[in-house]
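Write out this protein's structure.
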Amino acid sequence: MNIFDELESNVRTYCRQFPAVFDWASGHHVRDDQGRLYLDFLVCAGALNYGHNPPAIVEAVIAYLRGGGIVSSLDFHTSAKAAFLTAFRDVILAPRGLDYVIQCTGPTGTNAVEAALKLARLATGRTNVVAFSNAFHGVSTGALAATANPRNRRGAGMPLAPVARIPYEGYIPDVDGLAVLDAMLEDPGSGLDQPAAIIVETVQGEGGLRAASAEWLQRLQRIARRTGALLIVDDIQAGCGRTGTFFSFEEHGIEPDIVCLSKSISAMGLPMALVLLRRQYDVWEPGQHNGTFRGNNLAFVAARAAIETYWTTGAFGAAVRSKASLLEDLLTPIVRRFARRGARLRGRGMMRGIIFDEPDFTQAISKAAFANGLIVETCGPRDEVLKLLPPLTIDEAGISKGVTLLRRAIEEVDRAYAPLPVQQQLIA
């Protein structure tokens, strides 16, 4: 028995899917303790958009530590925080015309969602929240109430806060979930309480990579504005450049009341989460929502370095969009070739996936890809979607190699898998 099996809880997951002991990483590569190199299209579930150990960011953190910079500071003022806030205001918020105040929460995405939901209830005096089918917002109790997956929800072991579940765009063909929501909120006899907030992912990460359209999101914002509900965009996985712009909602013509950020906001995997909120909704009393690790100064240093390295001009976003186009071009023929397996392309930008009809088939591809040297996970309510999250800093050769390894894995599984029904063989 190894030390992990001896001492770690049964709750762990990723190490079961990818059984290796990793000890080195750089860019879009990781290496295990046996010296084997892997292409990483998982990047810590989207927490490493700039790749593993990006040199400029690592150097900024090392210089800060060597200079004796304070590391943990509760919510004291620090020079590292001031420099990060200044860069975030000047480079990210101001050019986009966004006037948000910033709340540093506990260090994970679910902490940001918890704070956002609490704040919406405080600001509106309401309790109900509207969330969507296949949503994932975290596994602490408040965020879990807005999460759709029943396996995750059972982990609460208790009743969860009131949340109304509405179909996400495209969830049920020919069913307009927003029309249903709109009608129910207008009708006092519908039984749907007026919500404090409507929380949404513009691209559903864990839920299967459905991507909402601009028109759908604009309608959602209009419903929120008319009913007095705060619109919360959970940009924890889709933000920080993953869709080609810093915020995933920029191209969609909406301006959320609250935005949740985590994962790649710290730029190199250091724990950090933020809530951005319109000034009029900053109704917290001092200390009303707190936590010990709101002052991770190493994360502030790394985040500032990322902003100054990648976002001061439009070049990085343009490069991401170009690579996203290449990724789509490479995936499209694979989807076409395996249409008999129900293959369809999902997602947006550098957050793409391929859904297959049979979850076991998808999961077998992930295992085969790992055996071939590619780390790619599954998502969706039945793990029926292959999720590709290559680092945004990857070069075109790395994208091509990763897709080649993926195609090889699909071909291997297709050959070994149970034969298709005769009708599907004829289609193929």
